[in-house]
Design brief:
This protein is mainly alpha-helical. It has a domain of 94 residues. 51% of the residues lie in helices and 5% in strands. The protein contains six helices and four strands; from the N terminus they run αββαααβααβ. Strands 1-2 form a two-stranded antiparallel ribbon. The chain has a two-stranded antiparallel ribbon with strand order 3-4. A hairpin with a 5-residue loop joins β1 and β2. The longest helix is centred in the middle third of the chain and has 22 residues. It is globular and about 45 Å long. The N and C termini lie far apart (37 Å).
Length: 150
């Protein structure tokens, strides 16, 4: 039974991030260290990511339906742009998100994270067209400690 469960988990990860939006209030690291996407109004990384993207005019969707918004549905993502241009735009958006999280939300970096790592991880998440806002929030949660996280 454990083998079937493990295979199902691996299959779910293969279908992630678009289909794997958990209802849990906390992002969870699986046994092999992979992150599991979360989308909950009780999770600060989710609400901070959603608010920042709304304030930056990247999405107008309401919170409950935003977890499944893909990166290629955000306004910065231009499929006709060159890879270099999209990388530059994703880097700019990552920096804006970092400013929002640290300067407005008062977030600090998680232990072992710094600006270089956080910006790089967010940029890479933004560049993958199939990643969801829930996945981006999970990447954010792994990099930043928000004021209510203890």
């Amino acid at each position: 039974m454990a083998t079937k469960k493990k295979k199902k988990q691996k299959a779910t990860k293969a279908a992630a991030p678009a289909a794997n939006v958990a209802a849990s209030a906390n992002a969870a690291a699986s046994a092999d260290g992979d992150l599991t996407p979360v989308w909950s109004p009780n999770h600060r990384a989710c609400t901070a990511t959603w608010i920042a993207l709304r304030m930056l005019a990247q999405s107008e969707r309401p919170f409950p339906s935003s977890g499944t918004v893909r990166m290629d549905q955000l306004t910065f993502f231009n499929a006709a742009a060159s890879g270099d241009m999209r990388r530059l735009q994703a880097g700019t958006l990552a920096k804006q998100l970092d400013n929002f999280f640290r300067q407005i939300d008062g977030a600090v970096f998680e232990a072992g994270k710094d600006a270089v790592a956080a910006l790089s991880e967010m940029r890479e998440a933004l560049l993958n067209a199939d990643n969801t806002m829930a996945w981006l929030a999970t990447v954010v949660d792994a990099a930043y400690r928000f004021w209510d996280e203890g």
